[in-house]
Amino acid sequence: MTRNAFATLLAGLVIALAGVAGGYWYARHTTHGTPTEPAVPSPASSATLPKSEAASSAGRRVLYWHDPMVPGARFDKPGKSPFMNMELVPVYADEGAGATDEGKVTINARTAQNLGIRIASVTESRMPMGFTVTGTVSVDERSLSAVQARVNGYIEKLHVRAQYDTVTRGQALADIYSAEWLAAQEEYLALKRSTQPDVSAIAQAARGRLLLLGVPEAQIQHIEQNGKAEPRITLQAPDASVVWEINARDGMAVSSGMPLYRLASLGSVWVHAEVPESEAALVRSGALVTVRATALPDAIYKGTVATLLPDVNATTRTIKARIVLNNPGARLKPGMFVTVTLGDESKTLLTIPAEAVISTGKRNVVIVAEAGGTFRPVDVESGRDSGGMIEIRKGLTAGQKVVASGQFLIDSESSLKTTLNRLQSEPAAPQSVPATTVSPQSPQHTATGKINRIDAKDGMLELTHAPIPAMKWPAMTMMFRAADKALLEKAKPGDEIEFDMLAEPGKDGDYVITRITPRAPRGTARGNK
After folding, report:
1. Which homologous superfamily does the CATH classification assign to the domain defined by 131-140+266-346?
2. What is the pTM of this model?
3. pLDDT digits (tens, 9 = 90+) for 67-86
4. Lower Cβ count inside 10 Å, N or C end of the chain?
């Protein structure tokens, strides 16, 4: 090959390579796809933002891009979010909300996975209707009885001297001397010995008078057998019981009708259960209950609700339920603490995980997952909460899918979308991004980070910050707005700083820094110059 022919061939190869490189560069800079190193797009006002006519690979028209973590800001190009250092998510034209789809949000499967969205089913399940409360044991006041003197006299001897002593039926309580008893006995004996006609009827009347004066039947029989009056009468316990009160002492004078003892039977006891005011409607008279005492872990007592007392404790906001329990062996003592389970039955109810409900104070909202990655907020009426599940009375049907985690992001996007759709239906003048307003009452958090870049004109700076536990944020790179541009005068990229930030974003969606303090570089000893 001659020298001229070789030069011609070499020149042709150079021209061909230049053409291929130029075509590749042209294709890379004219394609709608995401560039290798996308430039960070600038936020635009929701009213003045131009709607892109770009389409996805499936032919769907893109309206704008946004950051799901900061849904208020829109972007006209794809790329990295200036807020959370993540890829922007496209919003397509066929996701627009109509009159019947207002509030719906469509999220592709990959984005839903990145956001940590978890789906749960609406199911019919058995939910226990019972609940457990605390209570105290007290004496059954219907079993209280009084032992009193029916004549004037003196106490010569007490056989039972202490409160809470246990007594048996017929046990001696106290010996009382009474002249009135003595006179009545002598009158009865005289009539009994009399031989006058028709005296027997009078003698029987005198015997009845002894009974009315409180002389026991056994003692009257003893008097009849011996034919001798006894001035001392022994008071006896009418039944097996506990001495609840004692008002007698040796040598004390007593008068007719004076109560000396109050006795209480522990064969049955009352339990007063403290029922929360909100649960009072579930308690009814006659309902079965189960009682367990801390002091008797092996014993289970069954009883019924006798009544729900009519007053509410103003401090604890509870109502007392009176429960009657049989107490064999008198093991339950007045004053014991017990746990009371009311209502053991369960019902089949419509339930979802309790974490799926967003409570705003005025209403309860659930995010329903529909076909095609569409999510829709639904108002529901909730009921009982048990074991991490909550009853749904209105708003859902069995088999529907709801969002159990990540629903707060979807709800905020849905609320924003509904508002924007309403605004777009009315003519609105273009407006600029509002200035950041800093409220001195806003809560603030302190964190550390490194400045990557500063936009002094807009008062913005990009930080790579450490985790912020108070905000539940991991370490990440994001944009912040300075509360005062003067904070940026002495700062420069590469500085490690400590800063204070407001806990809530400003009106423009940016988180606001209120203080910047330089920190010593890592590895530099404190105090070195």
Report:
1. Efflux pump adaptor protein, beta barrel domain (2.40.30.170)
2. 0.44
3. 766 666 778 888 888 876 77
4. C
